[in-house]
Predict the 3D structure of the following.
Amino acid sequence: MPSTRDIRRRIKSVKNTAQITKAMQMVASAKMRRAQQAALAGRPYANLMNEVLAAATAGAGEFSHPLMEKRPVKKRALILITSDKGLCGALNTNLLREAAKWDKDTTVFICAGKKGAQWAGRLKRDLAAEFSYKDTPQFAEARAISKFAQDLFLEGKVDAVDVLYTNFINTLTQKPESRQLLPIGELKALEAGVAGDAAPKELGQTSQEYLFEPVAGTVLGNLLPHYLNYQVFQFLQEAKASEQSARMVAMKNATDNAKQIIKDLTLEYNKLRQANITKELLEITTAQMAMGN
């Protein structure tokens, strides 16, 4: 049975831990607001770009582009977007569980984030490249990832490129999702943005008409690389918003659990102290009675 000194030591240790998790919760909360605003602000632009691309595809006629080439999929690249750090609940675990479902013999992994690269190395997956990105993702970081994937596709090393990331739904809900990036002809245009919940529509089905100068094919050819870059950039924004939200919730839960442990230990400490006092009083009373006799 622990002594009162042991319980006091445990209470002090848990209080120190609670202070750390509380501080981490406040930091994650501040970062979460910025990340959520960035992710939500990027969705209208991504949505409009999808719509323009759909209209250009519909009006391009027999237009073809190397990035739209469809061929039998013998080798596939997967851009795996994870976090660099842990302490964000089951966010990375759920995402890597989905990544494990991809065939390791036919899949090449492009990892954005240290957790994904460590997972690929630990399970001996084919890791083609590892990229890092900041707490506030930069477009240049997304362009580097997109350019590497495009080069693999154009050189014929892979026949398709997919992205696996954590889609930000709200502060309490983040869902692992996969999107096909290449070939572009098989992408969907979403009415509610890259990560919206609305039903997707096929490229080319749009409610508005656009006039392209000089021709739709030229516009489409110049738009496709930027379209892919921004798609990856938006995926990074969604993943970062999900990470900060999950970390804030995880740290809040850790702080609440620490407070409950402190409460339980304090109750145990008071019970033990009261038992010791009662025991001492009983010993004194017994000794007094013995001396009186």
